[in-house]
Amino acid sequence: MDTLDLARWQFGIITVYHYLFVPITIGMSFLVAGLQTAWVRTGRDRWLRATKFWGKLFLINFAIGVVTGIVQEFQFGMNWSDYSRFVGDIFGAPLAIEGLLAFFLESTFLGLWIFGWDRLPRRVHLATIWLAATGTLLSAYFILAANSWMQHPVGYQVNAETGRAELTSIWAVLTNSTTLVTFPHTVTACFLTAGAVLLTVSAWHVFRRNQDDVFRPSLKLGALVVLIAGVGVMVTGDLQARVMTEQQPMKMAAAEALYETSGSASFSLFTLGSLNGDQELASVRIPSLLSFMATGDPSGEVEGINDLQAQYEAKYGEGSYKPIVPVTYWSFRLMIGFGGLAMLVALAALWSIRKGRTPRSRVLWIASMSAIALPLLANSFGWIFTEMGRQPWSVFGLFTTSDSVSPSVSTGEAATSLIVLTLVYGVLAVVEVGLFVRYARAGAPSISDIADPSSASSEDRPLAFAY
Questions:
Q1: Are 199 and 368 contacting, i.e. CB atoms less than 8 angstroms apart?
Q2: Whole-angstrom Cα distance, residue 308 to residue 338?
Q3: What is the pLDDT of residue 464?
């Protein structure tokens, strides 16, 4: 592999790894805020214990997410300096706002929440976690605005003298139509992921009849959040597909491996064959579904890869403008499939605890334990589809990925950073999973431990903070 390939692998690994923590952070911040609100309003101990328990798991995830997020931004100066040089005036603006405004809001009020227990008035302390949660949402918006500009560049002009893209309207960038459909789709996926975390951990305790007063309501909450957010993901995903078809028709064509322009285009659940347009062995198809997804009309016309390739060659010059079709095809289906499976598990879990029942099915046990992984896989494949489907562009129609790589970085240097960062992230994964499992299995603290932190077991002290 050359420098470009290594740089792309490194960016992909770090991005997917970092995004394992982002949806949990965003979703759980609001769920923890909701649990604390329930405690403030009702005064019931079980809601306070739930807040403390889920808050601890949220903080573990947040800490690792911050570390991996910092490295993520360093990527643009490491392996992608030509990209940064060309689009830095535009791409850097929403990222700067995110760092100076959203992350500042998020981290400041999260610190007040951590150390404000028994120091701030109860309602003021409650406000800190809601403000921190709002900060996570704003961070997501500004980062998605930057990414959406790569998908659909607006509010810029290219300076012929400097050869750089320059910002002409920050408002256009922040209100990009791509951002407006991507943000709700991403946020609903975050709640789906956070709900699955509650479902899996709570199910582990409920199956053991451990602290039912805390974990049965948490299981119900997690399952409901997964189901409601899942519906939101489907609705917003439908809207996003139509905008994507309008702005990046090649990506939608590649999602179906559709080589010839077609009306009433079907959608294949799976296909056996090479996906190169002439060696399809077998497929299971839903008639007219692709046309409906792409245009909102079951008989609508969807442009094929071959016609789009010819159009792009005429517009941008010779070269291949096709993404890697098997990657886009299968990542699109895996994204949908894993998200759908999470909803089915949530529905089964909710049914199993109806009217005070205790679930005993081993199949449901296995499914519940896997629920936490399903949205994470769906999110990862969703981002792989989004970014790989845009290739060969780093900024669609404006700047290619091959032009974006740092010219001064050698193949050896790129390989070294890839290996080192992958190993470091492997260590972080062990730390994250170890801490998460350890504190998840420990269960919720008792009221006596909350009232007197010094009485907590040594296992609970390291992450108790000011609890």
A1: yes
A2: 30
A3: 37
3-state secondary structure 407-439: CCCCHHHHHHHHHHHHHHHHHHHHHHHHHHHHH
Quickly tell me which residue has 């560049």 as its tokens: 153
pLDDT at site 77: 80
Long-range contacts of 75-79 (CB under 8 A, 24+ apart): 75/10, 75/11, 75/14, 78/406, 78/409, 78/417, 79/3, 79/7, 79/10, 79/11, 79/405, 79/406, 79/409, 79/414, 79/417
Query: Which pLDDT value is given to residue 277?
Result: 65
Q: Write out the two tokens for 331.
A: 């990542």
Helix boundaries (H) for 43-121: 45-78, 81-97, 103-115
Could you count the other beta carbons within 10 Å of the beta carbon of residue 35? 26
pLDDT tens for 149-165 read 999 999 999 988 888 99
User: Phi and psi dihedrals of 389, rounded to 5?
Assistant: -70, -20
The backbone torsions φ and ψ at residue 286, rounded to the nearest 5 degrees and listed phi first, read -110, 115
Give dist(CA 407, CA 349) in Å, integer: 53
**H/E segment holding residue 149:** helix 122-151
CA separation for the pair 324, 327 (Å, rounded): 6
DSSP string, 289-321: HHHHHHHS-TT-EE--HHHHHHHHHHHH-SS--
Q: Which of 223, 220, 125, 210 is nearest to 444 (CA)?
A: 210
Asked if 268 and 220 touch (Cβ cutoff 8 Å), the reply is no
Sequence spans of domains, the chain: 3-245+408-455
Cβ(68)–Cβ(101) below 8 Å? no
pLDDT at 264: 87
Q: Which of 32-36, 244-248, 270-274, 367-371 has the lowest mean pLDDT?
A: 270-274
Using an 8 Å Cβ cutoff, are 375 and 193 in contact?
A: yes
pTM of the predicted structure, to 2 decimals: 0.89
Amino acid at 88: G
Sequence-distant (≥ 6) Cβ neighbours of residue 225 within 8 angstroms: 27, 31, 191, 192, 194, 195, 198
Q: How far is CA 392 from the centre of its chain?
A: 23
Contact in structure between 138 and 102 (CB atoms under 8 Å): yes
Model confidence pLDDT, tens digit, residues 301-349: 889 999 999 999 999 999 899 999 999 999 999 999 999 999 999 999 9
Distance CA 182, CA 179 (A): 5
